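user: can you give me the structure for this one chain? tokens are fine.
assistant: on it. calling the predictor now.
[tool input]
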Amino acid sequence: MKKEMLINVSQAEECRIALLEDGILEELYTERTSQNNWVGNIYKGKIVNIEPSIQAAFVDFGVGRNGFLHISDIEPEYFRQAGYDPSEILSGKNFGIDDEDSNEDSEESPPSRGGPRAPRGGKLRSGRPRFKPPIQEIFRRGDEVLVQVIKEGIGTKGPTLSTYISIPGRYLVLMPSLGRIGVSRKIEDEAERKKLKSMMLDMNIPKGVGFIVRTAGQERNRKELSRDVAYLLRLWKALVKRIKNQPGPCDVYEESDIMIRTIRDTFTEDIDSIIVDHPEAYNRARDFMEMVMPKYASRIQLYENREPLFFRYKLEQEIAKIHQRIVPLKGGGSIVIDPTEALVAIDVNSGNFRGNEENAEENAFHLNLAATKEIARQLRLRDLGGVIVNDFIDMRKDSHRRKVEKSLRDAMQRDRARTKILRTSPFGLIEMTRQRIRPSFKRSVYEDCPCCKGRALVKTAESMSIEVTRILMLACQQQGVCKIQVRVNESVATYLNNRKRRELIQLEEASGISIQILNGESQFPEFLEIDCRDKDGGLVVLPFLTQTK
């Protein structure tokens, strides 16, 4: 299988990175300079508000928008009742930089939304049991707190913060307060896990500082891992100095840009080439590879053809399809993807699929198997998160259901976002969750239509005409109104001036008020502007309607 990574940065406003397997788009990452991306950044913030009812605090971390910090994302070191104080933590005493070396062993901690995280069960390093007192007993307004952004703000919600700090390297993740060595759960070979942990324990790691070996660290030698350890410790020491010397709110650490971040996190030995279409970006990518993976630096290539890179590989058409509601499947059938406010609904349709005409059960089974792979691919490409409900074609055999579940789990294995997949429900649905870190790809490209407000529907001309007539009946009862001028969409004006003309004349005769219907050219279907005047030409405001001049 031929794997290629294409990096398109020819336009300064946007960086796009595509991962191809045998010419098929499997992963797509985009970032625009106009969009604030704080995920992974570390800040020294200040508590500005505490909400005991939801056990959360709001933190000013210096970006003009307060972040959300829940009790479940607060390090035990911040628990006053456990003998810690935020000011003591921020002084650097508990960062493990100046302590004696330690090779503390422990089981791997479960990953968090922002990277690996210390376990919330068990004991503190001092041996005291962990517990979570009320957040109002941990913080006060004005307290300084070290936080990392683990999820972008979506809609009116602010960014989600955590005090579980993690700094990723190429093969390792540094966790300053973890105090133990862990290995990624995606490395399943027990012998390899023991080997990696043994190499890490033999290194000169300061007491109290923890590391998680990433999936990319698999089959790495001691020299490669020790180079990552040295780099991350130097970086953390520099950050500690910044934390001590600068008052909050302030920026402590910023994640790398999307190009360096993607190469660091997704590059594997089986990727044959990384093609970059801009000289400056090419030089930065090559310098990074020579620093962290010198053996593979030669795989970075500069694209110099006149034809745009993504057009050359026919990716623009593929990217356009990402936003389509219906995705066709090879061999027939399709999946229909409908994101809603609460969840994502995915429906598998047989459509023109033609298999064994005498065995509907086998047809449904094979179509569902094909759908699982495409569902996993579309979730990655669209970056859809939250609760996802997959409505597969009904299958009677329990063995077929189990195989479809396994196929979906296998297809989701390569997804870097955390997922959880349940068994098939009695209604034939497979429910799952996928980690949501930032708004979906579609939400970052589109905005709600000003006409329909995101409903994808607008009122018919008849509905608008009935509504306008109802408002006119109310307006005619207002004291002082002598003339009413209504401006609406062309089709609505036509409907009113023709089918509603008799009612309007009767309304004019009964009230003695002149009513004029005007055509609002190029206005959207639900546009409505009513102008009421008295006998002197003065504006009369309708209390039941927002007046537009």
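assistant: here you go. The first strand starts at residue 3 and ends at 8. Residues 91-130 have pLDDT under 50 and may be disordered.
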